[in-house]
Amino acid sequence: MKLVKRSGARLTCAVLAAGIMIMTALGVAMGDEKKSPNPLSGDPKAIEEGQHLFRTNVCGHCHGMNARGGGRGHPMAANLQKFKRGYSAFLKTVREGYKQMPPWGGGPQLDEETLNKIGAWLESMGQPESNWSDPRN
Amino acid sequence: MSRYSMWFVVGVTALVLVWSSFGTAQAKPVTDSDLMAPAGNEWLHGNGSLDGTRYSTLSQINSGNASGLKVKWISSLGGKTDAQATPIYHDGVLIIPQDNKLHGFDAKTGRLLWKNETEMPEDWGGQFVDFFTGKHRMAAITGESAIYLSNECSIHAVNYKTGEGVYRVKIDRIYPKNFEKSSDGNGYFCTSGPLAIPGGKLIVNMNATDTGGLQGYVQGHSAKDGSQLWAANMIPGPGEPGSDSWPGDSRIYGGAGPWIVGSWDADLKQYAVGSANAYPWSPYGDRDGRGAGNMRNEGAAAIVAINTDTGKVNWRYTVVPGDPWDYDAMQTPMLITIDGKKMIVQPNKTGYIHVLDAKTGKFQRAMQFSDKITWAKGYDSSGNPNWDFPIPEEGKTVEVWPSLLGGVNMYPNAYNPKTGLIYTAGREAGMSYVFEKVQVVSNVRNLGASFEVLPGGKEVERGNDLKSGKEKWRYETAKAGYSGGMLTTAGNLTVWATQGGEMTVADATTGKVLFQLAANATSKSGPMTYSVDGKQMITFAFGGTGGFGSVADDWHNTNNGSILVTLGQ
Known about the structure:
The complex is a heterodimer.
Chain A: H1 2-34, H2 44-56, H3 59-63, H4 87-96, H5 112-124
Helix pairs in contact in A: 2-5
Chain B: H1 3-23, H2 32-36, E1 55-56, E2 70-76, E3 88-90, E4 93-98, E5 101-106, E6 112-117, H3 129-132, E7 140-142, E8 145-149, E9 154-159, E10 165-170, E11 195-197, E12 201-208, E13 214-222, E14 228-233, E15 263-265, E16 270-274, E17 302-307, E18 313-318, E19 334-338, E20 341-347, E21 352-357, E22 363-368, E23 376-379, E24 385-387, E25 398-400, E26 414-416, E27 421-428, E28 431-435, E29 440-441, E30 444-445, E31 449-453, E32 458-465, E33 471-477, E34 487-489, E35 493-497, E36 502-507, E37 513-518, E38 528-532, E39 535-542, E40 563-568
Parallel strand pairs in B: 1-34
Antiparallel strand pairs in B: 2-40, 3-4, 4-5, 5-6, 7-8, 8-9, 9-10, 11-12, 12-13, 13-14, 15-16, 16-17, 17-18, 19-20, 20-21, 21-22, 23-24, 25-28, 26-27, 27-32, 28-31, 29-30, 32-33, 34-35, 35-36, 36-37, 38-39, 39-40
């Protein structure tokens, strides 16, 4: 009886441990999927600079200083606080244009670091329904 | 040839000649006398008449029968962007520019008669150029030529009956260029229309403000061949009064471009026009700073009066000295006689209606029409604003009312001499606003400011007594935005379409809505009226999307519907 009890306890521990490992692995994987590939994502200095860059370049003129519309450019310039299409799509949109938005918003081209800083600020402004991670295939 | 054969030939020839006359009716040239006449059977100018008041003498449709109005025809304008032009009408043809094309429609049926198109240059581009492309606010007509400006500032004259090109002349000023294709992206873009005045002249507004700030001009051109006669600078140059109100060379990129057609006084031979904001928006700037609000920057956010015989500036009145808020004073300064004296009257972004002596530009009064104004507490007797709070330092966000879109924006206002009321296409909205460092790319200075029009707010059309400023009536919508502009008539009517697309005909005295019909397309231009075969018609142009200058939650739920709609009895 004692032998059975000890074996049962070990089995329970093993199952529990395996379960914890699986859950952890799943959690890490899911967290990775949610994480933006922007190398400056979450960087406080980049976020502060990104706000300034968004506002001083043409972005703020159409999308408004808080990126939710209220600007003076094309009507219905998107509310970027609800941007859902992922970080790679954001970069593609800025570089190539999207629907009525011309490439670079009609302004000068920006380098990658500037885009990452602007992206970091936009991510920090994101509403719950926004998504900056790249979607799974 | 026998006698019978001869008569047969004569008869057939006569028939052919009569048949031909139906197909090619004689053109009726627009004369100087026609140009001077008030709007009535014809609507020859974008604002109806040279005084800019958008008042029609027609009264066949009136407050007694407007409730029975019907749709007479609808026609597609085929535009990709806002329809900002009020059509003009002459001799059966309705004429309207859109997307760098000039269209002629049969005013009885709406059938497209002709279309004259042009293309932009390959290196066309630059700061905000995409936003301006395709937009035109007026066309003009004189003699047998309908005339419009394409966006890169060419004057196009076409035969008003056939659309056949008469001439095309590129105005001698640079246009804005794509950043990648040019080391200097600054340039002039034309969204305003020309004004045809007696004596064979066209008055053309030259604006380069938001594409980098090159200073604005008004130019006189020959209507016969488009050649330039003179150019008048909006910002005072060396030796002119007020030239010392711009530090260093800051006037070169000081903005102040005129971008809405002005009015013309036949006695004074004077064109009065409003000018855009000072540039950059930030008064701090770098080496070309405007003095951080300490300098008046005369000529920007101003009303400027020009002698159209000589091109000399008669006077300038600066509505917002030092303009820190992007408060353009671009609206048409209307020419109105008040108690026997000719006045210039301009409702503008500030939330006030300014009244000036037409001959001297002397400030008379500024009457508040906006519900909420926080940037100033009225104007003093010299015509200077009583500033309400200091200009904030860079990086500090402030809230200002009205927003930079204005108590009124570009959508035209109107005045009715019978009611004595001035009708404004207004909006109640404030803004968050912050100054940022000005940066320069391809020699283009950026704005140096960022903003957001605050959520909520409402569209408000008002009728204010011109002498007292007292509001007599208003019409409000729950949704943010501006109507496309106002029309008023001797039939005691005031007419507009809301940003959401409701065509509205109201009693001009009381504001009571007599007729309303939903077009469900955004209105960005004012309606106009004319008479065809003895029947009065009212035409609206629709086009654009109803989300300009609003946060996403306030957008109107309309698609881009590019149409003309005509009402009649």
